[in-house]
Write a sequence for this structure.
């Protein structure tokens, strides 16, 4: 955590933190794909989406509202930005937090410049409550803003809305159906992640070998966001040497965090099979956190969910041994 500068007033400190946050966002944007070819993976989705974009342009129509479904850090916002770039529209990225208010969205929409088209990304759209989602119906279908007092205001700008979600089950069917186009992100292969690693290394001037890129790609857990984290760490240590990068990031060669390793260790300690309640008590983590942690473990076939609870698979035991061994080797080097 950044330390507060001496002699800064509270206002100055707040401004400094704001500038740091903006600089961090700018650095992240600089690493995002700038062209369709730089957006590696999702070949079928991109091909279909480009056909849909071309068809809409030839009809002199706007692209229909789009819903993107995929895990955290898989590139949904990057793809949305490319859509805006393709259409020549202004891009607005809105993160929908649990306390986001519809009134705030209404104000943003009413302030959009009517002289140009817009692509508005509603990231984490599932955080809208069911009642809030009801207000989106008229915006998406009729292009009208409904207010609490019953008043309806026409949306005076051309807008394509892109919803992005990791949890489509939290959307009402009525809201889901109001999106004209729905695309689901496919899993990234280790080879695709290695290509992303290489592209980011070139951007940041980090030297790498094919073997190193593949190792970092495998450790990216199928998410471009984690790939960026690894390459930024490689920049900090001055090379793409996997062991150094993994140690700095606290990530294993299988792409697991300390939480994943602790989860599997707890499962092993409980005999290899346990229910979620026992896991929560043994690991000291809330069930809600464990549900998120185990998604990657299930995807990698490290654990299996069944009637008897969670079971540690042979592949998971091997990954756990690798993680423990790597930690021990790192600690021995520090002590030497």
């Amino acid at each position: 955590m950044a330390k507060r500068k001496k002699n800064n007033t509270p206002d100055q400190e707040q401004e400094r933190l704001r500038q740091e946050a903006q600089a961090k966002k700018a650095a992240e944007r600089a690493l995002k794909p700038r062209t369709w070819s730089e957006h590696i993976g999702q070949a079928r989705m991109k091909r279909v989406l480009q056909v849909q974009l071309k068809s809409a342009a030839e009809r002199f129509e706007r692209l229909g509202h789009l819903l993107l479904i995929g895990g955290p850090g898989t590139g949904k916002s990057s793809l949305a930005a490319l859509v805006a770039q393709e259409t020549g529209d202004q891009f607005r990225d809105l993160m929908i937090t649990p306390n986001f208010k519809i009134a705030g969205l209404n104000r943003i929409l009413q302030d959009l410049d009517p002289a140009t088209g817009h692509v508005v990304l509603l990231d984490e759209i599932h955080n809208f409550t069911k009642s809030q989602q009801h207000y989106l119906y008229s915006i998406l279908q009729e292009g009208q803003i409904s207010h609490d007092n019953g008043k309806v205001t026409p949306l005076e700008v051309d807008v394509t809305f892109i919803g992005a979600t990791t949890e489509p089950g939290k959307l009402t069917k009525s809201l889901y159906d109001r999106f004209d186009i729905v695309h689901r992100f496919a899993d990234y292969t280790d080879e695709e992640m290695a290509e992303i690693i290489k592209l980011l290394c070139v951007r940041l001037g980090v030297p790498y070998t094919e073997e190193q890129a593949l190792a970092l790609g495998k450790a990216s857990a199928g998410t471009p966001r984690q790939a960026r984290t690894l390459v930024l760490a490689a920049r900090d240590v001055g090379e793409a040497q996997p062991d150094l990068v993994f140690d700095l990031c606290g990530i294993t060669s299988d792409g697991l965090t300390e939480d994943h390793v602790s989860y599997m260790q707890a499962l092993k300690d409980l005999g290899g099979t346990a229910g979620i309640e026992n896991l929560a008590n043994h690991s000291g983590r809330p069930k809600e956190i464990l549900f998120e942690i185990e998604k990657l473990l299930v995807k990698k076939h490290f654990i299996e969910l069944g009637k008897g609870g969670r079971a540690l698979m042979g592949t998971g035991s091997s990954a756990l041994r690798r993680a423990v061994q790597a930690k021990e080797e790192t600690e021995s080097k520090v002590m030497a």
Summary: Strands lie at 66-69, 90-95, 118-123, 144-146, 152-154, 159-165, 181-184, 273-274, 303-306, 309-312.
